[in-house]
Structure formats: structure tokens, C-alpha cells
Amino acid sequence: MRDPLVSILIPAYKPHFFKTSLESALSQEYSNLEIVIGDDCPGNDIQSIVKSFPDPRIRYIRNNPPQGPMQNYVFLFRRARGKYIKFLNDDDELAPDCVSEMVSWLERPGITLVTCRRKEVDDQGRELPERLDTRPLIEENVVLNGGDLAAAMLLHKLNFVGEPTCMMFRKRDVADVKPHLMSYHGLGRERSGLGDVALALNLLERGDCAYLGAKVLVRIRRFAGQWQEVSPARAWSMESWKLFRKEALRSGKIRKWNGFQVKYYAGPEFGRLTFIHASFLRRRIMVWLEGFRA
Q: Which residue segment(s) compose the domain that 181 sits in?
């Protein structure tokens, strides 16, 4: 029986690191892939790079007119043919075993989202110091209760799941989200600065999260001038956190949060259950804040 098709979706705009990102997609150990590129670049640089890789797995789409930062994700999602969706931002990189590791976890029942440990690098490829939301919650591969994780994110306004590049999920699990997968209960339909958080919340409301913290599976590029680093995007993000939390409280999606229910697996089978108390995360937040102030 053939492995399920995975759609690696690259919303492309900046050509500077696009070749590296595309190479990381083409170098995946997992074989049954399609790589779909939505080109929003005002010039022909992205198209020229794609033409230098005559690989039948690549499907190139020139967006005319351009879709814009959030809508390019939505555009590609609707055109994906795969059972599983793997976004890849145009300046990020996947480890060669990233897709195969994630597929093996999504095949388990009850899991709607797989995310992984990531390492941030600058525009020179140098590793950046970890921030609170990029530190791994657990340095093991485990399953976290979806409601626990969603509540922790909203209460602390921290994205523990990560950027779209960190995630993999089933297309069908968010195909019915209106107006699109990067809105949350109708909020953030045009712009929010938190499309990744909205996507994660939608998935966590539907099931659990496989959190792969044992090793780094993606490299996230972070440098001055990126869209998410400019002032309007930061302002939209802060406002969206408030709106998402308010909506989650209104709809009953946030319950009293005491910590994370964690499942450990022994091979393919469930092994043991434990609980990480909320005080653990709160202590880590306080330690990090004290270090930041110093």
C-alpha cells in the first residue's frame, strides 16, 4: 500500500532564501510528495529558481494578481491534493526526515496536529538564542491534550505550537473552517498577524497534538524586515491575541487550566500517562522574564 500523499505548500514572495527552502523540500526522505508553490514575487526570481529544478513533484502557480501574505496560504491549501498538509515558508528549512516523522504520528488515532522543535537562525544561518515560545516544552516526542495546549497558548499569549512551517495536519480536519483555515471562529479573516495561531487553535479544538521535541526538525529564519517583525503586524498580533482569547472564553473553549496531560508512547502503542502542572510553565516564564529584564 502506497504512503499517503503529502502536500508541501510554499507561499513564496522573497527569493533570497527560496532556493534553500525548496531544496529542503526536495530532499525529504518521504517519497510521496507534491510541492506546490504560490508565487507572489513581483519579479521573476522565484520562477527562475523553480525552472532550475525540473522535478515532476513540483507544481508552480504564478499568482496574478498577488494573493498577499495570509491569502497565499489559503490559496495553496485549497489547491492541495494531499491527505496531509505541510506548509513551508519561503525562508525556512525542513530536516530531511521531517515529513516522514510527522506522517508517522498523524497516522495515530485522535491526533489532529503534529508540531516540532524548531531552531531559529538569522539571515547568515547563525543560530539565535532561544525565546520562551521557541524552547521545547518537552525534549521528547509526546502527545499533548489539545484543549490543554490551546488554553495555555491563549492564557499566556505564547505560540508554543510554532510557525506554519512547524506544523502538519490532515486537510479534511480544517476544510470546513469558515471563512478559511487561518481564521478563528470568523476572526482574523483578512489580517490578524496570527494566522498560525488561528490554524493551531482550530486543529486543537478537534483533537490532540503530537509534540516532537526530541530533535530539531525545522529551521526558522528570523531577521529584520520580515513582515511579522514590522510594526503593523505586531500591533495586529497583539489585538488578535485579545480577540481570540475573548472568543474562546465566550464559546467555552477555554476551561480551567491546570497543566498539560501528556501521553508517552512505547513504539506504536500507548505507554504511560503523566501530567505537567501549570506551575512548571509559569515558573519557566518567570525565570525567562527575569533573565530578559537583566
A: 6-293
